[in-house]
Amino acid sequence: MDALSSHSEISKEDEELYVYGFHMMCAQGFFFLLSLLFGILFGIVLESLVFFIFFSLIRSYAGGVHAEKESVCTISTSIALFSAVGLIKWSTMGDNLLIPLLMILVSALIILAFAPLDTQEKPLDREEKRQFQKISYLLLLFICVAAFLALAVQMNGIFHACTVSLGLEGILLFLGHLKQKLAN
């Protein structure tokens, strides 16, 4: 960063934003590779990648609970990714569709009710909130359509990856909303 700012590529005011962006890019890369590793371990690489992409997209716009320390964030996200990929694997081994369908329904209702979550860590102004809400709803629709198309063509692993991505986002969004209510 010092090289960019010393060559006047970026201003001192923007330097913090670039550092944050670079940090976020590295964190996303780490969690992508972790999801890939868990997918390899469970034998569901494609499903773990579909899950990660869909979850990351909707999480970016809908929001949810955030850890207050970086180390807690890394550990809890790693555990959540492992659990999610494990749940996808476990879900594909059964024939019961009632639980995944209920997960989609409940998660969709939570996302519709609370997205985007305006938090202290990520405050949104009125226009950003409206924009993020619109994108959250479009992503929710897209993931639901992808889930039901996958189910229709008997790609059960992709169906469960979509379901778990919405389920995890619903949980994090609900917990974030609950955390806000308890703080007030």
Summarize the structure.
With 184 residues, the protein is mainly α. 81% of the residues lie in helices and 0% in strands.
Could you estimate the helical fraction of the residues in percent? over 70%
Rg on CA atoms, Å: 18 Å
Number of DSSP strand runs: 0
Distance between termini? Answer: 39 Å
Structural class: mainly alpha
Notes on the protein architecture:
This protein has 184 residues and is mainly alpha-helical. It has one domain. Helix content is 81%, strand content 0%. It has seven helices and no strands. The protein has helices spanning 2-6, 12-42, 45-62, 70-92, 98-114, 126-152, 156-183. Helix 5 packs across helix 7 (156-183). The chain starts with a helix and ends with a helix.
What topology emerges from the helices and strands here?
Elements: H1 2-6, H2 12-42, H3 45-62, H4 70-92, H5 98-114, H6 126-152, H7 156-183
Helix pairs in contact: 2-3, 2-4, 3-4, 3-6, 3-7, 4-7, 5-6, 5-7, 6-7
Q: Which key phrases capture this entry?
A:
mainly alpha, 184 residues, 7 helices
